[in-house]
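Exercise 7. Given the components listed, write out the predicted structure of the assembled complex. Treat all entries as one system.
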Amino acid sequence: MRKKWTKILLSSLLFFLFIFPVLFLFFKSITFGWNWPDILPHTLNLRAWTVIFNDPLIYRSLFTTVFIGVVVVILNYLIALPAAYALSHGNPRGKTLIETILLLPILVPVLAIAMGLHLVMIRLGIADNTAGVILIHLLPTLPYAVRVLKAGFDRISPDWVKQSRTIGTSQAAAFFIVLLPMMLPSIRSAGILVFVISLSQYVLTAIIGGGQVTTLPLLYYPFFNSANEAVVAGFSVLFAALPILFLILMESSIYLYKQWLHRL
Amino acid sequence: MFSSARSFLLLAPLLLFMILFVGQGLYRAFSESLHAGDNFLENYEQLFTQGTFWSSLQISVYVAFVSTLLSLIIGLWITRTLFRLFRTDQWKLAAWFPMLIPHFVAAYIIVLFFSPSGWFSAVLESLPLAGTFPVLVNDPLYLGVIITYIWKEVPFVVLMLLPVYQEIDWRMEEVGRSLGAKGFTLFRTVEWPWAGPVTAEVFLILFVFILGAFEVPALLGVTYPAMVPVLAFEWFYQGGWSNRPLAQAMMIVLTFFSVLLSFCLLYAVQRSRRKWMKGGKSNA
Amino acid sequence: MLKLRQAAKKYEDQVIFSNIDIAVKAGDIVSILGPSGCGKTSLLRCIAGLAAFTEGELFIDSREVTRIKAENRPVVLMFQEPLLFPHLTVLQNAIYGMKHGKRKLSRKERIRQAEEMLKKIEMFEWKDRYPSQLSGGQQQRVSLARALLLQPSLLLLDEPFSSLDAHLRHSLRIWVRDFLKQEGVTALFVTHDREEAAVMSDRLIVMKDGKLQQEGEPREVYEQPLNKDVADFMSDGLHLDGEFYTASSLSISGSQAGTYQGIIEHPLFAYGYTFYRIKIPELEQSVVVRSDEVREEGQQVSIAVQQKGSAADD
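Answer.
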């Protein structure tokens, strides 16, 4: 009995610590002139959101941010899926060494790498533009994508693939019909994780984008200390909303894929 | 299982990226940090004689260590108490939720609650208690930064430890109890052999990440002492790029420090685990 | 030694066991025998303190321990699997309870005692190995050593041989029985294998559906089962007009009056003899009877029953 109460207590504590602050942020964004030391606002309205949606700069950078995020996710899949598959079901020589190398971007400050790459990327003409930013976003995302996807492949027995091969399906078909559907949960998690990491980059975008590529975080920093707290709160909520938007995008593509599977 | 050659074919894009980006990036950063003249380590000598660098390094290590340690302790405690609840998806989603929030938004949440004009301060003001709200944001002790990191990283710790806790053989706890072990001994002998290596790994990931991260201290830190990445970013663009080699030398020092720590920690974990994991050889 | 009075365990609305009275004399090995799901493992866990009785009182060495936590009870439970700590060596596993647990000893003394015990169980040369390097039987022996080193008033064993293969099971259980006897350990042993119960114990208790059915020496229970459930589970023979006739009073004969007609289902070979499993349709029962003649599957035979009391005339 005592244990049950601890659990209820702890779970409500978790709610207040982790969910409530984000709800508070949203609440803050629909108030106006809620200043210290008022505990509750006097009025609720949507003025902050009107400000946000009337700013053409925010509109444009919203598009840039989502575009970069989605491309980063797709590139992550293209690079990390085969690699994770090889690490999980294959037997490459020096596996431990490879896995350590893959961890490097996590175990080394990415800022150091980005600073080192800055001049090279300028010379190659991929700095100060979206392509460069996309490439540099691969740095903090790839290790996590490989990790999540490898864990997904680890849960699938190689026998499944073998079995479908013995029936006579081609290798590609075996991948799309057998492996991929089983990998969907991991693919979904990896996608969200990568998207959120890409969304959270300020310093990499600032250095490699050179101020020419304005993603939302680059607009957010100057906003941060602005006097209009409701607007900053609304801007913050936007960041929480983008992964949800991405999730919807993702779920609909998964739905389409499943439709395609059933038609087979 | 398939051949080594085929594995490498599948790994090729990733390895290529790692060499071209990580390898080259580090190499360039290192070579640009070297001095062109006779004394090629001049930038490092200059760095090490600067008080700014040392106080930045000090504050960085302090913030990274305290944030990581507290996140781990809280995360471990939550995981231990709630891992049975987390089997269901709604609960997992609740744990995932803060992971969706970028670090700088988390920083803003902390400002909303903890700044001198924040909500907690307002609540405190309305209470009949005397006392002013302490300065927790842009404070020289970096408390706001630490709170932000704890808020963001505890869910990450929980998410990493959860699979471990869900796979622990809890009959071992009963064995321990039946033999008379209690409290901390049970934790140390039943849970820690499994949770320990993952905890070490998470410690490493978080410590290195916080050590090298710019986003939060740039918003909630102070100008002096600034955390190393903030200082490096400042130097990187200062005086028409003239301070660049110094900035890069500083980041290389940080990199070296991180890699050394990773190596020691991963090696120690591997060594202790290899002894008793299945197929291990005894040293007897 | 152990005295359990009117013990019951209920979980939500379900009764796991009830009205359990057990007494175990010092130095005895007592088996609780029953089919899976009869509540015997729950009973053992409650005695160990890993679960709580809903009703009843438990005394060990004349001290009431009903409310005492598992870690403080003078009993040790051995599980179905060895459950050695994988990160500790054999010696460290053996020492565990004397270092952290119920019988705290100085470092020197606990190492001496553990090494002595490992010698007794013939595991001394393995003392610095890790559990993953041992066979199942070796692991179970170390597990036993780890429990016995605590010198518990009562050792509880929950089907400790069920995870081993048949051959190893047979040799290890005799070894364990002899070892427990030699060390003078009082033990309560749970199993669903009647042969194991008979080999291991001085007395046995048959349990079914959460109730005690019969208690006695193995031979007594085998020859005179008190009810049909006990007979089905513990004995071999036939139920005739409310009485039970053990297989020793049955024989295969030609067709005579007072016999039952049966069909040979299949032969069994054991301990140098041949037995036949015979189905008796009119009684809706099957029985295993020894026979020296060679019989065919499907063959019609008659079963003669030696009436009770006439056995001495033979």
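Discussion: The CA atoms of residues 90 and 127 of chain C lie 5 Å apart. The mean pLDDT of chain C is 85.
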